[in-house]
From TrEMBL:
<dbReference type="Pfam" id="PF00285">
    <property type="entry name" value="Citrate_synt"/>
</dbReference>
<dbReference type="GO" id="GO:0036440">
    <property type="term" value="F:citrate synthase activity"/>
</dbReference>
<dbReference type="InterPro" id="IPR016142">
    <property type="entry name" value="Citrate_synth-like_lrg_a-sub"/>
</dbReference>
<keyword id="KW-0808">Transferase</keyword>
<dbReference type="GO" id="GO:0006099">
    <property type="term" value="P:tricarboxylic acid cycle"/>
</dbReference>
<comment type="pathway">
    <text>Carbohydrate metabolism; tricarboxylic acid cycle; isocitrate from oxaloacetate: step 1/2.</text>
</comment>
<dbReference type="InterPro" id="IPR019810">
    <property type="entry name" value="Citrate_synthase_AS"/>
</dbReference>
<dbReference type="GO" id="GO:0005829">
    <property type="term" value="C:cytosol"/>
</dbReference>
<protein>
    <recommendedName>
        <fullName>Citrate synthase</fullName>
    </recommendedName>
</protein>
<dbReference type="InterPro" id="IPR036969">
    <property type="entry name" value="Citrate_synthase_sf"/>
</dbReference>
<keyword id="KW-0816">Tricarboxylic acid cycle</keyword>
<dbReference type="InterPro" id="IPR024176">
    <property type="entry name" value="Citrate_synthase_bac-typ"/>
</dbReference>
<feature type="active site">
    <location>
        <position position="312"/>
    </location>
</feature>
<dbReference type="InterPro" id="IPR011278">
    <property type="entry name" value="2-MeCitrate/Citrate_synth_II"/>
</dbReference>
<comment type="similarity">
    <text>Belongs to the citrate synthase family.</text>
</comment>
<dbReference type="GO" id="GO:0005975">
    <property type="term" value="P:carbohydrate metabolic process"/>
</dbReference>
<feature type="active site">
    <location>
        <position position="261"/>
    </location>
</feature>
Amino acid sequence: MSEVQFKEGLEDVVAGTSEICFIDGKEGRLVYRGYDVRDLAEQTTFEEVVYLLWEGNLPTREQLNQFTTTLRSMRPLAKPVYDLLVSVPPSTNPMDALRTAVSLAGIYDPDAGDNSYEANRRKAMRLVAQIPTMVASFERRRQGRVPIAPDSHLSLAENFLYMLHGKRPEQFPAHVFNTALVLHADHELNASTFAARVTAATLSDLYSAVTSAIGALKGPLHGGANEEVMVMLQEIGEVDHVDTWIDNALAQHKKIMGFGHRVYKTEDPRATILRQFSRQLGEQTGTIKNYQMLEAIRQTIQSKKPLYPNVDFYSGSVYAALGIPTELYTPVFAVSRIAGWTAHILEQYRHNRIIRPRAEYTGPSHRNFIPLDDRE
Ligand code: ACO
């Protein structure tokens, strides 16, 4: 093993090839299938981006109509999945509820057991269509309310907000939420996507791979960071307290949630877009204090360290202004990232080789065996 170079956390290790997503960490660019995410964020629906990630090209109007019609028809949950979500304790962590619901949905998928490309493509569509229904249904359960059935007249973004709040969203909030979904749809070999690909590469089924991904996304160093950012804002309380709070946190070598990134060495382009929405929605909904505190945190940190905000820094304040409860931020991440996970799983199946790296052994060697009765 001496010729193998070990990199802690696999930093900068290239673990495979992919045609789906490119990140330029130096320039702060994110590209899906050749398209800059800033252009997609301004001009596409999330459904177009799902199609792009899976098919490699943006759909024509006709292709999109057909695609969205099928997706909309797949939104209702299988009865056992619905029953599970309304029967688990309301105190269940929403990511645990989602992970369990997705796992159960795999058993009831009409294509269960069929691992052909066409069947996997249909499973992927069902997951994109149903994860929003799962997340919204469980949130209604948490609130002691009856889940709202999906509305097939609405886009994926509009329908999610509708199922959550029970009323159709206004145009601007729906546009913001659609953009947030576009921005989170894929991000190369992030931890959850890598977990999905590792599982898929054993030729396990698509639902198992997605369940692995949901487990990885849950952690506070990955998808859980946006919730932690909001917890931090609550702890700080006032804009005037930011300097002292950040000084203390940095002195104790605490990680500031929503800052830093393994790949971006400049500002995450998704954060730049979400910052504008954080301000605009903050002004419109009376939640501007969140934005002001975030900006104060950013300025304080950047006056001390070359650290930049990542996507999670502003997304929580955007979701808060959209009326999405904090506990739902990571599940909402999954509502979007299921697009990227499934694109990567399908790509993995197309060119598969099991992913099986090595470890640099650092344990003891050449110990003499001691029979059980002689051990002290
Ligand atoms: N706050 C304070 N210091 C930080 C932060 C932070 N958020 N992030 C990195 N640093 C510092 C580290 O202390 C370290 O400094 P040192 O070299 O003086 O010891 C240096 O920057 C490198 O940090 P690492 O932790 O080694 O970077 P790594 O690439 O392993 O981790 C990660 C990346 C996990 C994103 C990290 O920056 C972090 O924990 N950030 C907070 C959690 C977060 O926001 N996660 C969301 C990421 S985006 C996503 O998953 C959607």
